[in-house]
Amino acid sequence: VYIGFLTLVYMTLLFVCACINRRNDIADIGWGIGFCLIALASLKFDFYFRGILDPRSIVVSCLVLIWGLRLAVHIFVRNRNKSEDPRYEKWRTEWGKWFYIRSYFQIFILQGIFMFLISLPVIFANTSHIRAFPTVLDIVGLTIWVIGFLFEAVGDRELANFLKKPENKGKLMDRGLWAITRHPNYFGEVTMWVGIWIISISAGAPWWSVIGPLTIIILITKVSGIPMTERRYIGNKYFDEYKKRVSVLVPCLLYTSPSPRD
Question: Of 32, 140, 163, 207, which has the fewest CB atoms closer than 10 Å, so is most exposed?
Fold first, then answer.
């Protein structure tokens, strides 16, 4: 209840900031920061009642902070000096007089609900202390998280460097990690949350806390991640060829040859 109320207040304040700046894509920057707040709040909540900080809780919170702050900075830098994200601009026009009401509930409150569900393993890991740290599950979970973080961070960096070069305008990024998965950043994000869930199981989290990684998997593969990204390339012959030889999410090393750059 405490974390749920905190998430509601945070998303409401984020909505107010979006209204003042007339940029609903502030929600994208606030996404990673929101997870950081939930991790810190659950850590403080546990410390308030126990009077000590559990090593596993510290590790999990640090993992969330590293991921969330890096993502927020990355999106902020990407959006800086640009107009509002086209997705939100489109909704601003389509929703008309209902724009602010729909924005609050359909963008900010809905994201807050997803944020809470995905964070369930973090909350349990920070408040459950059944086993000593580290266990085999902790090591496995941490290893999986590191792999995921590298995929997301390196993938984002590769794409950012590619887009900076004027000669790449209109061309398709299919080098580096993008040669073995069409969405290395999304694969990394899913992998990191699976890793955190495994650590939370080691802490004594219930089996149904798997709703956390399942939520992010569904969002990325079925809702706002991959579907919205790939919709932009409908009719692009180079992307159609790219889809035939590169895995959509899980990396596959059976890579043939790069597509034409022109």
Answer: 207
pLDDT at 177: 95
Nearest to 39 by CA among 157, 153, 192, 155: 192
CA distances from 22 to 53, 78, 94, 141, 176 (A): 41, 17, 16, 40, 36
Calpha distance 237→54 (Å, rounded): 53
| CA 218/CA 209 separation, integer angstroms | 15
Residue 261 C-beta-side C-alpha neighbours within 13 Å: 7
Mark the ranges of the chain whose per-residue pLDDT is less than 70: 48-49, 51, 254-262
Give the DSSP per-residue string, 220-234: IIIISSHHHHHHTTT
Q: Are 70 and 31 in contact (CB under 8 A)?
A: no
- In whole angstroms, give the CA distance from residue 188 to residue 182: 12
Q: CA 95 to CA 114: how far, in whole Å?
A: 22
Per-residue pLDDT at 262: 42
Contact 183, 233 (CB under 8 A): no
The separation between CA 114 and the C-alpha centre of its own chain, rounded to angstroms, equals 11
DSSP assigned state of 204:
T
* Dihedral of alpha carbons 83, 88, 92, 93, sign: positive
Question: What integer pLDDT is reported at residue 9 of this predicted model?
Answer: 97
Model confidence, pTM: 0.90
d(CA 53, CA 134): 15
Compute the distance between CA of residue 86 and CA of residue 76 in angstroms, rounded to an integer.
16
Count Cβ atoms below 10 Å from residue 64 Cβ, excluding itself: 28
